[in-house]
Amino acid sequence: MADVFEKCDEFWARMEKIAGEMMVPLRNTFFRRFPIVNCTPTYIRDGKEFLQVSTNDYLGLAVHPEVVEAGFRIAEQYGVGTPLGARPLTGNTDLHLALEADLAKYRLTESSLVFNLGLSAMSGTIACVVGRKERIFVDAYAHSCVHDGARLCKGEASWFAHNDMTDLEEQLKACPDDVPKMIAVDGVYGMSGDLAPLDKLVELKKKYNARLFVDDAHGTGVLGENGRGTCELFGVEHEVDLHGGTFAKSFGTFGGYICGPEHVLRFVRHVSPGFMLTKALPAAIVAATIKSLELMQKLPERRIKLWENINALRDNLRAAGFNIGNPEGAVTSIFTRGVTALHAVKMLEEEHQIIVNPVMYPAVPYGTSIVRMTPSALHSTDQMQQVVDALVQVAKKIPLLEGNHAAAHRAVGQTADASSAHSTT
Ligand SMILES: Cc1ncc(COP(=O)(O)O)c(C=O)c1O
Questions:
Q1: pLDDT of residue 417
Q2: 104 C-alpha vs ligand 1 centroid, how far in Å?
Q3: Rounded distance, CA 118 to CA 214, Å?
Q4: How many domains does the chain have?
Q5: From the CA of 119, how far away is ligand 1's center (Å)?
Q6: Among 68, 119, 144, 281, which one is most buried in terms of CB atoms within 10 A?
């Protein structure tokens, strides 16, 4: 008799097919244990100094004394998780409203909503905004939470090949004029580091009378003249209908948000379970985020330093012969076949005391894996060179220079996210 639990073992059997006998040792590379001094560029473990280029704390704000103090003050005064209620109950504090006002001002939108996760912000908003007999078109590389929103919505969802405007236009053209439409993309793609062509997406959205949703989790604080992200970089902030993001990257805190027109967000506020049927973000985190949003705007030198580090890392990787594709956000990835990236990450940690992230299926296509690096403003350019020197040593032992970027892109249609989002709900 078939059992719903069977797939749990089948998953590991599929993984063993690509990892072979290394599966068990490599499995432990995922979900490694880290000390909780997690956002500093270096830390001491067992008497050894480790360098980490993996925290997502792009601007170093997670450990900024003013951010820490802002959160600490509220936690000490009111409790760690306070408020414990959902937003429509006891969870709606002045701090939550102040952060929403600050975010709307920063994003140049009418309104904003703060969620307790970036994941719920994207999935919860898309799921309720795209209704019955409506249609959403999602980039195949978009973050899983955008795909989740498309799967959960009452409308019809389809995906288009990553950044392929011809594919998107064909789908838009084939969709009847009277069907309300939304296009959903990431500003910066979190695995490959490339950008959505927002200028072209705006043209298409206008031509086919669609709405445009941009999840700019990775672009915010990093791109654009004032650090407002990918939409600022492309000069399309006013053309994008809904801006989503997370606080768990450049802000250095926790939670997520959506910015957009007040009448739309008033609707989301009242109907999205991801907003209203879940505990509010702790006020201590909200207070810390208010401070980090202020600092993000007051300290442009952090963004300048971040880019100095990103450029040093990329120039040195390319000079050493690594295939890193054409990333334009802060994420820098080396694409590999099989589970080579997991081997590399394990060797970097054990032999060079360097921490970077491995990414494997189902976050990337089956049969590929990624060594993913995210520099921060707190790193030095010498530390970027240190990472590249170590990678060069690792590449002498395993086939890390044998770039697999094209294969990773070709396989995009086979990702778990993409294929399952291609469903009518
Ligand atoms: C593009 C993108 N969107 C959404 C999220 C989810 O944000 P959170 O971690 O706040 O749930 C992430 C997090 O990794 C992300 O990279």
A1: 40
A2: 19
A3: 12
A4: 2
A5: 6
A6: 281
d(CA 109, CA 226): 16
Identity of the amino acid at 150: A
Alpha carbon of 56 to ligand 1 centroid (Å): 11
Q: Which residue has the higher pLDDT, 27 or 37?
A: 37
Considering the entire predicted model, what is its pTM?
0.93
* Cα–ligand 1 centroid distance for 248 (angstroms): 7
Say if 4 falls within a structural domain: no
Is the pLDDT reported for residue 405 higher than 80?
no
Query: Per-residue pLDDT tens for 323-363?
Result: 898 899 999 999 998 889 999 999 999 999 999 999 988 88
* Residue 14 within a domain: no
> Which residues lie closer than 8 Å to 141 by C-beta, 6 or more apart?
162, 163, 186, 189, 191, 192, 412, 415, 418
Binned at pLDDT 50, 70 and 90, residue 32 comes out as confident
Residue 271: which CATH number?
3.40.640.10
| Residue owning the nearest CA to atom 10 of ligand 1 | 118
Do residues 324 and 248 both lie within one domain? Answer: no
Q: Is the CB of 217 under 6 A from ligand 1?
A: yes
One domain for residues 29 and 52: yes
**How far apart, in Å, do the first and last CA atoms of the chain sit?**
29
Residue 13 lies in a domain: no
* pLDDT score for 390: 98
Judge if 130 and 246 occupy the same domain: yes
* Rounded distance from Cα 47 to ligand 1 centre (Å): 33
Which atom of ligand 1 is least distant from the CA of 189? Answer: 1
| Ligand 1 atom nearest to CA at 256 | 10
- Contact between residue 213 and residue 242 where contact means Cβ atoms under 8 Å apart: yes
For residue 248 and ligand 1, the question of a CB distance below 6 A is answered with yes
pLDDT at 414: 39
Digit-coded pLDDT (tens) for 184-220:
999 999 888 899 999 999 999 999 999 999 999 999 9
| Structural domain of 381 | 20-62+300-413
- Residue 12 maps to a domain: no
One domain, residues 178 and 81: yes
372 Cβ below 6 A of ligand 1: no
Is 70 found in the same domain as 177? yes
Q: Which residue is it, tokens 């395993």? A: 398
